[in-house]
Each structure stands twice: as structure tokens, then as C-alpha cells.
């Protein structure tokens, strides 16, 4: 009875810390995002939005799932701090290598997209610099966060980032007062904020693991074997994440980029739920005994549906209050707000199932092939028949694109429960 009470107390403390910490951090970030939407011109916010979208895509391409392998491969061996340190170092080594390989390609691609809008070359260079700095520092945030999630050190994760987020919001306010708030200054301030978070988490993380003196080729190979079947789907998903922004950036106008980016701010309401999956659900699922996995899957999926449904219904029934958050410049988006929130909820449910699948090491080539085939087929058909030139086109393109990954992750879940052999971690000690 005493052990049950201790376990319940530990879980209650973990959940309280998460919702308080993530709620504060997410609240400040949402406030900062909405402040930019409401105060910046559509042209300036188009620059910031394009840089932010490109940064997310390039960040995923350079990560290739390396940082997400730490928790599943450690699994129940989290007590071995030497082993945890080896996996973190392997993720850092592999991600840093892809950064230096892909950075020149990313620069060429980003400049090519920006050139169509004829923005000042100084702004383009500074936006590109902010993207590269954000991507590199974002990697540090990802792999140095994993040990904190494994050991439930959520206070160490949230407190410094919340303080730095408040500082970033203050910088935005000061720049606006000084007349210096624009697309590239906002992007650079965001990049420095991510860099500061990476440095802080690096110091905190090293206090909880035994950091190896050098890279371990055996661990590197183990990480690569685990993530290899997922890499094609991850690369594909990286482009899909901001595909509507890029298509609008190529074929549409700056105002449409701003509108799509602004709608993305509304979808941040699902971010706290998505991060909950990584911080709390994934470590728990990785350690869970096999006989309890099915019930946990069903419970979490039902909770997700119950959480998303009221949000989507409200967006369809009363878009006015939701649009008020964005400001009068975006009043014309009233008829697509509900569809945008529906897309966000589908993406959230898809990510939840994917995180549970990878926590159980259910990573299969068949899932990768199915995801790419389903999603790409639907997108090509949409582009050929309708095209993506306006904000409305982009919203429905994103909605259609969300179904491919969802159906795929449901298939992988069913395949895993059918008894398919998960990818086993090789003992490294």
C-alpha cells in the first residue's frame, strides 16, 4: 500500500510540474507569437513566418530522428547514467554531422524562396543567419533535454526556458518601442533565445549523466540501425510540416505567407499536448510492461479525442473570438479557422500515436513506405486538380496532408500489436 502511495505521489508531482511548467512556458511563447502577429506588418510577419517555417523543416532534416532515439533505446536502463551519456553523445555527434553537411544546401534553398519576394538582401542574409543559428541550437535543446525527461527533472527543464521566454517577449516590446521590430530582428531575437536555452540545458544535463570522453562507434551504429527505417518518412515529414508555407512562398503572395503563419499560431494550442507526449508519455511507454501497453494506448487516444473535440467545435461555431487573438488584419480568415484547427487536432493525434509507437520500438519499413505513398498521392492529386495559390488553398492542402500520417501510424500500431518483432536495442555495456 505504501509503494502504491509513493508511486501515485510521484506521478502526481510529475504531472503537476509538467502542466505548471509547460503551461507557463507555452503561455509566454503564445503571448510572444500573438504579440508579433498583432504588431508587425503583414510583410514583416511574412519574413518572420517564412524563416520560422524553414527553420522547423531544416531542423527536422538535420535531426533525422537521432535525438528521439535516446529515450526508446535507453528504455528501462535509465539507471545507467554512463549509458545515457553515451546515447546523448551519439545523438549530438550524428546531428552535428548532418548540420554541417546540409547547411550549404539549406542556404541555397532558402535564398531561392526569398528571392521571389524581392526583400532587401541584408534582410535575407540576416534571416538566413537566424535560421542556421536556431537549427544548430535547437539540436542542443533536443538532445540535452532527453536525460531530464528520463529522470523526471522537469523543473530543471522548464524554469530556465520560461525565464528566457519572458526575456524574449520583453525584447520584442523594447524593439517595438524603439521602432526596430521587424522580420529579421524578431527572427534573430528568437534564435538567440534558443541558443541561450541550449547552453543552459547542456550544463544542467551534464549534472545528471556521466559524459563520455569520446564518441562510441558501437552506439552510433546502434542508433543508426534503429532509426534507419524511419529516416525516409522523417525526411518526407520535414518537408510536409511547412509544405503549405513553401508552396505559398513559391506561387502566392507575401500576405498569404503571413496569413498561413498566423493560423499556425492558433494551432499552438495543441503544442502543450504534443510536448506532454514527449516529456511524460514516451518515457512511461518505453518502460511499460507488455501486458499494460494496449490499455494505455486506448486510454491515451480517448483522452486526446476528448481534449481536441471541444477546441475544434468552438473554432467552427465561434471563429470570431479566435480571430480576435490575431488582430483585425486577419479578419478575412473566418471561414477557414475551423478547418485549420481540425488539421491541428489530426496532426496532434497522429503525433501521439507515432510517439507511442517509437517508444515501443515499432519502427518498420512498411510504415515508412505507406506514409510517403498515401500522403504524396493525395497532395499531387490536390495540386494537379486545384493548385495551391491562396490561403484557403493552403489550409485545405494541409488538411488533406494530415490524413496520410494518421492512417499510417494507426497501421503501424495495429502491426505492432499483431506481434511484429520490434527493433531491439543491442546491449552496449
UniProtKB/TrEMBL annotation:
Keywords: Cell membrane, Membrane, Transmembrane, Transmembrane helix. The chain crosses the membrane at residues 14-37, 97-114, 226-251, 293-316, 336-355, 362-388, 394-414. GO terms for cellular component: plasma membrane. It is found in: Cell membrane. It comes from the Bacteria. Its main location: membrane. It is a multi-pass membrane protein. PANTHER family: O-ANTIGEN TRANSPORTER-RELATED, PST FAMILY PREDICTED COLANIC ACID TRANSPORTER. This is O-antigen/teichoic acid export membrane protein. It comes from Tunturiibacter lichenicola. The lineage of its organism: Bacteria, Pseudomonadati, Acidobacteriota, Terriglobia, Terriglobales.
